[in-house]
Amino acid sequence: MSSSPDPGRPSQKAIFFDLMGTCCNWLSSLLPLLQSCPPHPSMQPMESKVRQFAIEWREGFFKEVHARFERREPAEDIDLTHRRVLDSLLKERGIGLEIWDDGVRSALVRQWHLQVAWPDVIPALEKIRHEGNYFLIVLANGTTRLQLDIAQSSGIPFHMLLSSELLGLTKPDPSIYCKAMELTRLPPNKCLMVASHLYDLEAAKSVGMETIYVHRTTEDVDVKIDLDRQHKYVDWYYDGREGMDRKGFLDMAERLISR
C-alpha cells in the first residue's frame, strides 16, 4: 500500500503535529550532554539537579515565547531564545563563562536540534502512512532549520514541515492553524491537531480542527489534566507517559486507521 495519501479517496485528511515534547523526547536528548558539562556545586547531585535544570530551561523558553506573543512581537530565532534563557539560568547558579564557556553553551543550544522520537511515534506514524489516508505534517513554533534537523535526527516520517518562521505566525495565534489548512486545501473537518500542550489544542479547536491530546511525562508538568473540564477543546485523549503499558501514539493510530 502506498505511503502517501491517495488524492482520489474522499477520506483524505491532514494530521498536524506539534514536534518537541509531543513527538520527541527532548529531555533524554539533552541530559547526556548536560551531564558531560564541567562540574559545579549548583549541579550536585548531578542526576536530579541536571534534570531540574533542563526542565527549567524548557519552561523558561515557553515563558519567553508566550511573552513575545502577548506583546505582539515577531517570533525570534529559537536558538537565540534558548541561549538567552540558558545564560540567565547559569547566571542564577553562579556558573560563569570561565566555567561553562561559549563552546559549551553553543553545544547545548545545538543539542535542541538533535532529538530522539518517543518510542511510540515512529511505528505509529509508519502505520498511519501505510494503512491510512493522511498527510502527516509538523506545525510547530521554531525555525525551519530546527525542524529539518529534528526530522533527520529522529527519523520521524513526516510528509511536510511547517514552522512558525515559514508561516510568519506563532502558535497559539488561530491564524497559524488557518494558514496551515489553507496550504493543504483541506477544510477544518478534515484536519486534526495532535499536541501535548493544552493551549495548542484550545487554539486549534477555535478554528474548527479536531484535537488529540497525547499526555507526555515532560509536557504540561504544571497543568492539571482534567478531561471533564477540558472536553470542549480536547476530542481524544491518549496516555503517552513513560512507564507501564501506555501506548500513546499507537492507540491513536489504530483509531485513526479504523475510522
From TrEMBL:
GO terms for molecular function: phosphatase activity. InterPro entries: HAD-like_sf, HAD-SF_hydro_IA, HAD_sf, PGP-like_dom2, S-2-haloacid_dehalogenase. The keyword Ligase does not apply. It comes from Zopfia rhizophila CBS 207.26. NCBIfam families: HAD-SF-IA-v1 (TIGR01549), HAD-SF-IA-v2 (TIGR01493). This is HAD-like protein. Keywords: Hydrolase. It comes from the Eukaryota.
